[in-house]
Design a protein that fits this description.
Structural class: alpha+beta
Strand content: 15-25%
Number of strands: 10
Shape: elongated
Order of helices and strands: HHHHHEEEEEHEEEEEH
């Protein structure tokens, strides 16, 4: 998805006008309190507006592809705070650094007097940008949700016993939906309330339980060899003794997994050993 303000010419013009308005507002606020030539104050306003406009585009990319939807509330807050510190730091550092190179220490020192005010304004702008992005993501998710439900219904046929056997798994990542074919899965690994699905092409995070996958994957192909690991037996290339009562599985891609005694017993049964 493109930046919401760069989807078409009209929105691009609105985005530019928004930052021009900010530049004029900053000039109006700083002119009475900073003893600098008008030209310097005007340039300062337009430079900082342009920098934050560019940062706004970059922030969209970070938030869009950061997969924040799978994070807990605490993790989201920490990430947003870190992103705010980084963004405002870059904004202020680039602006003041540029004026130091152009005008020297005298002008940049006078501009430092309004640093706290400018930092507070930058924080408010950051919060407004993030809030706007969240609204857009929520609208997008509402539009995507029916599609995902329809895909799930289409790709999860009923088993005769009433249990649905998965043939494909739809995984939502931000505004994208990845479809993972069950035969392509190497193994699954638990991670709290989520499950990592590993394939040769990469890994995907699904909000689901291991018990669900244990019940809905073909039992003759997928075995829970450990409390936190379900493996595709067709992807196993070697089994060897690891400790006294544990075995080590080597998959066809070289990945190695440990089994529990109970898991190894289930694996032996699946492999008719």
């Amino acid at each position: 998805m493109l930046h919401p303000f760069l989807e078409n010419t009209a929105k691009t013009v609105q985005y530019i006008l928004l930052w021009l308005a900010y530049a004029l507002l900053q000039i109006f606020v700083l002119y009475p309190i900073v003893a600098l030539p008008p030209g310097v104050i005007i340039l300062d306003g337009f430079v900082h507006a342009a920098l934050f406009g560019i940062l706004g585009i970059m922030l969209w990319s970070v938030v869009q592809y950061g997969n924040y939807a799978v994070l807990s509330v605490q993790q989201r807050i920490i990430n947003y705070i870190a992103l705010a510190i980084l963004s405002i730091g870059i904004w202020l550092g680039a602006g003041y650094g540029l004026f130091y190179l152009i005008y020297g220490n005298g002008v940049s020192t006078q501009l430092l007097e309004v640093l706290p005010v400018r930092g507070f304004i930058g924080l408010l702008i950051y919060l407004l940008i993030i809030q706007r992005f969240r609204v857009i993501f929520q609208q997008t998710e509402k539009a995507v949700e029916p599609v995902e439900v329809e895909m799930q219904q289409a790709i999860e046929p009923q088993k005769s016993g009433g249990i649905e056997l998965l043939e494909r798994i739809a995984v939502k990542s931000g505004t994208k939906i990845h479809v993972v074919l069950v035969p392509d899965i190497l193994y699954l690994q638990a991670d709290g309330d989520y499950v990592h699905i590993f394939t040769r092409d990469g890994k995907y995070l699904k909000e689901q339980t291991m018990k669900y996958f244990e019940e809905h994957l073909p039992e003759n192909q997928f075995v829970r060899v450990h409390r936190s690991v379900i493996v595709n037996v067709e992807m196993i290339s070697r089994i060897e003794l690891y400790e006294k009562q544990n075995q080590l599985l080597t998959l066809k891609n070289g990945q190695q997994l440990k089994t529990s005694p109970a898991g190894y017993k289930a694996l032996r049964s699946a492999l008719s050993l």
